């Protein structure tokens, strides 16, 4: 962080991003795990949050790490995390539902292999 950050610019970007996500200050604070006062102070350009708090706010705004500093230095955010494509997500959930319905109906190897894979993936003990 070389030099002084433009807190007013940061404030405008945070307000705009929060609005584009359809969030209130309270909702953003809840997502970030901070107080509403923290969000209010950031949006007013009054106070600069600590690194851990900035990281949580960036995450809640679906920004990349360090974007608040980049904005304050006069640059654009590195890029918002890609928005969720609701239609695609619903299609994929439908596919998963159909797959798991097949597994529920299969008492054999296919089901055992899928369970073993999921246990390994999530680090759970084998339930034999």
From TrEMBL:
SUPFAM superfamilies per record: lambda repressor-like DNA-binding domains
Gene3D superfamilies: lambda repressor-like DNA-binding domains
Designated name of the protein: Helix-turn-helix domain-containing protein
Domain HTH cro/C1-type intervals: 14-68
InterPro entries from the UniProt entry: Cro/C1-type_HTH (IPR001387), Lambda_DNA-bd_dom_sf (IPR010982)
CDD domains: HTH_XRE
Pfam families according to UniProt: HTH_3
Biological source species: Actinomadura yumaensis
């Amino acid at each position: 962080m070389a030099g002084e950050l433009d807190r007013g610019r940061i404030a405008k970007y945070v307000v705009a991003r929060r609005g584009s996500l359809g969030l209130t200050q309270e909702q953003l604070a809840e997502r970030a795990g901070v107080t509403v006062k923290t969000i209010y102070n950031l949006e007013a350009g009054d106070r600069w949050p600590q690194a851990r708090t900035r990281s949580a706010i960036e995450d809640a705004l679906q920004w990349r790490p360090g974007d608040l500093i980049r904005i304050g230095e006069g640059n654009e955010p590195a890029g918002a995390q890609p928005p969720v494509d609701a239609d695609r997500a619903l299609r994929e959930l439908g596919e998963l539902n159909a797959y798991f319905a097949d597994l529920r109906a299969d008492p054999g190897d296919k089901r055992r292999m899928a369970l073993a894979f999921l246990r390994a993936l999530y680090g759970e003990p084998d339930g034999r």
